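Today's session is about reading a structure prediction critically. Students often jump straight to the picture, but the first step is always the sequence itself: look for stretches that repeat, for charged clusters, for runs of hydrophobic residues. Only then move on to the predicted structure, which in these notes is written as discrete structure tokens rather than atom positions. Here is the chain we will use throughout the hour.
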Amino acid sequence: MLRTLKEVLADARKNKYAVPAFDCVEDVMVRAILETCQKMRSPVVLMCLIGPDLDGNGWNYIPSLIKAVVDFHDIPVALHLDHATDLESIRRGIEIGFTSVMIDGSALPFEQNVEITKKTVDMAHPKGISVEGELGRVGGMDLQATVRAESTLTEPAEVEKFLNMTGVDALAVSIGTAHGVYQSLPNLNTERLKELNDISSVPLVLHGGSGTPDDQIQNAVKHGICKLNIYADCRIAMAKGLQRSAMSQTREDPMANEMFGPIKEELVKVVEEKIRLLFADNRI
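Below is the predicted structure for this chain, in token form.
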């Protein structure tokens, strides 16, 4: 069942769990994630990340694949455009049929962040599409692992103003996580999160969920995080499966299920772990 982010996160906030949000590419990821969430009765956000994953025909292939198969599952699924930084990408995502979009103005000064986020809301809401904004900045490595950005914690004093001026449906906050693979383990600022959750009128989102210690993730969920973005952990799992696959082949023309099977198996393990970690199992 295709749903908006606003619909999916409303139940999570009410019942104090978080929805796993997986950046995904290709059918192996889409199938493994959806079938695992179906089995565990968990809602899910399937995300398409601006950058290499959507370059070229990715803009058409990946969201079209998700839309084609989602009705075979009776769990809520939000189709989310992740980390757009310009309005043209937002416009394209709306035209393609994403049910929610994220505008990332976190690298901009507050006023400019408000401006681009409000324009996104004005474009998306008339179409019934949810909007996620970001306040503060979650840094870390880019997808190519070539550029590292510093993180800036979300300021509680700016939250209410930002929400009132933009009208977003969900707010990504910075409390100590980072994108990509950690060089050293983070220490999430739970006290800051409590302040943000007390102020915020919308569900809170945590980016950079891969590699963060489980106890810190669960503590964050207990104090207001309703969506956790996950990508690097899935890529690590698939690489492990690829190594298993390469080592196990005995014939020149192996069957497709023999090649992709170990990749899917390792990915399923991660998806199951994240669903349980976020208290998202048996919610449907």
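Discussion point for the tutorial: The chain is about 45% helix and 15% strand.
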